[in-house]
Amino acid sequence: MFRIFGFVVGIAWLGLAFGAFKNSAAGWGANASDLGFWWGVIGFFLTIAATGAMVGTWLHTRPRHD
Questions:
Q1: What pTM was estimated for this model as a whole?
Q2: Cβ contacts of residue 62 below 8 Å, gap of 6+?
Q3: Residue 10: is it exposed, middle or buried by C-beta count within 10 angstroms (0-12/13-18/19+)?
Q4: Could you write out the three-class secondary structure of the chain?
Q5: How much is the average pLDDT of 17-37?
Q6: Is the distance from CB of 43 to CB of 59 less than 8 angstroms?
Q7: Nearest 5°: phi and psi at 62?
């Protein structure tokens, strides 16, 4: 159950990162380099958070073999 929840959170954050990268591309396209840059930074951090959530979920919900 926790594994599913962790991966759902990771996928949701990837969706937010995709939206941030879309805003970044729109900012660059409209010659608003400040918006393009900062939305890119936000998308980058959201991608790191999503990856951390999914990798951490996978590592911490594995069955223990003591």
A1: 0.88
A2: none
A3: buried
A4: CHHHHHHHHHHHHHHHHHHHHHHHHHHHHCCCHHHHHHHHHHHHHHHHHHHHHHHHHHHHCCCCCC
A5: 97
A6: no
A7: -70, 150
